[in-house]
Amino acid sequence: MKIKMHVLFISFISSILLTGCGGETGEKPWHPYSYSDSYGDFYIWLASESYEDKDTCIKAAKYALSDSEDPSLEDPHGCIFYSNNYILAAYNYWFNTDREHIYCLFETYNPDAVENKSRYYPLLKSTKREDIKPGSGECITEPDTSSFL
Predict the structure, then answer these.
(1) What is the pLDDT of residues 22-71, one digit of tens each?
(2) Residue 111 — φ and ψ, nearest 5°?
(3) Using CA atoms, how far apart are residues 10 and 16, in angstroms rounded to an integer?
(4) Is 20 exposed, middle or buried (0-12, 13-18, 19+ CB in 10 A)?
(5) Listed residue (97, 104, 94) closest to 124, CA to CA
(6) Over the stretch 83-109, which tens digit does the pLDDT of each residue have?
């Protein structure tokens, strides 16, 4: 009985931390990405669609790739999580993101991104260093420098 109470307490505290601390998350925080021939590397579909959960995002990306009129988009694909909530962003970075294509969890200082509930997000390895303006943000996890441009 004592162990069960500890598990319930830890579960309760974890759920509060994961859902309530650190900032807002948009209604559709999951964004698909895939390999793009025309881009020459992985590409986030920021302008297209975003989804409420990872499973829906993955299914939609898979369908979009199979039914795409854009032959440059192809597998592999995945989804990444954007949020102003550091704890949720970190949790999804460590446990719900295929980090093979990810350089780091990035914190942007761009006020527009914060307004759009996208302060924290995984930065793809395909992001070119010169595309990151000095002072615009920083990696808040140890970068995976394998094949970062």
Answers:
(1) 578 888 999 888 777 666 666 666 556 788 999 998 888 888 777 666 66
(2) -60, -30
(3) 10
(4) exposed
(5) 104
(6) 999 999 999 999 988 888 888 999 999
Grouping H, G, I as helix, E, B as strand and the rest as coil, residue 3 is helix
Q: Which of 131, 118, 124 is nearest to 33 (CA)?
A: 124
Instruction: Give how far the C-alpha of residue 68 lies from the chain's centroid of Cα atoms, to the nearest Å.
Output: 23
Tell me whether residue 115 is exposed, middle or buried, using C-beta atoms within 10 angstroms of its C-beta: 0 to 12, 13 to 18, 19 or more.
exposed
Report residue 127 as tokens.
């992001």
Please report, for residues 22, 32, 61, 69, 78, the alpha-carbon distance to residue 100 in angstroms, rounded to integers and kept in the order given.
Answer: 27, 15, 18, 27, 10
Asked if residue 105 lies in contact with residue 86, where contact means CB atoms within 8 angstroms, the answer is no
Q: What are phi and psi of 93, to 5 degrees?
A: -65, -45
Q: With 0-12 CB in 10 A as exposed, 13-18 as middle and 19+ as buried, what is 93?
A: buried
CB 84 within 8 A of CB 114: yes
pTM above 0.85, yes or no: no
For the chain, the domains span: 22-139
